[in-house]
Amino acid sequence: MSELYQSDYSTPGYLVQAALRGAISQGVDPKSLLKKSGIDPQILNNPHDRIESSQFAFLLRNLWLVLKDEYLGFGPRPSLPGTFATMCQCILPCHNLLHAITVYSKVLLLLPLKLSKMMRPTSNLTLAHLMTLTIF
What we know:
With 136 residues, the protein is mainly alpha-helical. It folds into 2 domains: 10-67, no CATH class; 83-132, no CATH class. It has helices at 13-25, 30-36, 53-67, 83-91, 97-110, 127-132, and strands at 10-12, 50-52.
């Protein structure tokens, strides 16, 4: 793997390892998932090796499919595939960042996630609120 062309379009092995942590914690075999994604499992032993970004994207897609979770196993509960896309569709018509954040927080309240009290929409949403938003 170390002979892979190292360009701006490659992903370091340590990010591959990090992406796999949630799946591993749920009992998924990382080597078979890497093979299915076209990635040499030796990347697990060499965090400084790199893979093509397209391979990493394919790995993430496979993780979403295997786990049925857009949070890749890192959230308090799974986020069903399509949640992020739906959220994006909801905020597309927003005219500014404040409006987008307000809509985003209202939609999150409809989803089965553990939300911080700071996620409750308020009429005076400020940058300080934005900095403290969390879904974990």
